[in-house]
Amino acid sequence: MKSDLGRWRRDWKLMSLFFTGAEISLITERLKNLRIRNVVFCSFENRYAKSGGLASVMTNILPFLKEVNAIPAVLLMTPFYPSLMSGSKLKATGKQFSLLFANRKINVEILESSQRYATPRKGIIKEYYLKSDFFFNTSDKLKDPYCYHESDTTKSNELLRTNALFYCKAVPHALNALGIKEDIICHLHEWQTALISLTAKEAMTSGMLKSCGTVQTIHNSYDAQFSWEALAKLLEKNRRKKVASMPGDGLSSYQIGLQLVDAPITTVSSNFARELTADIIQTKHYAPHLQTILKSNIPFGINNGMFVDYSPSFPKREKHTINEVRAIKLKNRQILLKILSTYKPKERFGMLTFKSKTIMKLPDHIPIIVMTGRLDPLQKGYFVLLRAIEKFAEDEVKVILAPLPARKSDLDYFYEVACKCNGNVTVFPFRMHRGYQELQTGSTFGIMPSVYEPFGAAVEYMANGTVNIGRATGGLVDQIDTGCGFLYKEDSVFHTLKNVKAFVDSSDLMQARKTNPWIQSMADNLYEVIKKAVDIYQNHPDDYYRLIINGFKKAQKFSWESSARKYYRIYDMIRKA
Hints:
Strand order of the largest sheet: 3-4-5-2-1-6-7-10-11
Low-confidence stretches: none
CATH architecture of the largest domain: 3-Layer(aba) Sandwich
């Protein structure tokens, strides 16, 4: 299904569950007169606390939203994580507030950071950080803003839900304390912030805020269930009593948020917007409980812009000749090989060699393959690439992996393959502070075998002059085409609910995953497309370098200016609904 913004109508199915008829009329009238003067991005990630790509979205799009659309104030509202960031990076606003949460009075201090930018014009974005002694105390070992306990996932998720509730209740209070009380649009990101679509409306009925609309962007279909008793912690007085006594098991963050939001639901790529109601891993596993909502309020895909600048080693980008690209690429390759032969941190494992000797002697015709990023066993598909790698002979390809694992045990299969494919595989299981840029520019192919992918990092490889190979899913379909890279898909006969469920249930059982027909088909087809790509690189080099040139052209289509204009159109629909 494709979203048609022209036919969209607000559908507040749950409003009467929380608000009286008079309150709904008041909220409706306030939103009709709302002007786009204060856009507040609400996110659990920020420049100091990163997990996936959400933090990069926050830091890239805000200047464009403000300048391209001439919005007077665009700001970020985010938690302060004492274990992840230093208070010295921030300064006090002098603003504080207190609120009642779970029958406790909680004091909150507002810290701020002023971030200067030069693009698209010079300006400053304000970032506000909510600091409380009792909340946002994440694990300092994993440096992940969503992880509250390293070894107990159940406890960690429970604490994350509680912290999300507190944050959603605190945001309207923070806006009031900052003197931002009307013409507000809270742009909500992920389930952790979705319930602001409820608390902002309650704030309008109480007079804490005069006018505040909400927009929701889904970067991932993860969600969280809340009991009515837990949800009651969000609310005030009589409304709290009413909600706490409701029958049933409660609702999820998105089940409430998406039915109270004031504009079309958005997500971060056109194809992922379609897959939310079409791909069985979404419809039957991650979001079966949201299908009625998503088919009624069809998500609108707005592609992200580029997260990185173009590599300076390709100053002419798409205007380079094939011979110029070849010369630059081979030079970048030698720089990468030098780093691989000398950079040996203690965490690295697996050797890269050629004929059992130094990798520096690797001939130009042997391709170098790279995969980097979060090691999410249910999403990123590292295990699919590892399965495919096992099929290659010694010195047929060289593979560099830079996963960011959540647990040590996540690396077990990496050790197995690095040992089995000694000489072909090396692993950097940490966030690389040296050599990462050289991986991007010097590798032959960047691999993204994602099980699902809301947006992805294909444009990052394109901007660095590296050809993409990706599974045809989510945002990768929007980014990669036959002119600039390679897409593949497993045989459709294996993409069944039975195999998907077995895959999800075996997230900690790699041997079971290896025998899953769906995963086997993914690995087989990835192996075949890598072989095809290698053939073009070795036997049709001009075609390979033409893919790089076309990648520079394709990357230009992903701009934050375009994203900012599309989001402004969504904001404008709040008062027109």
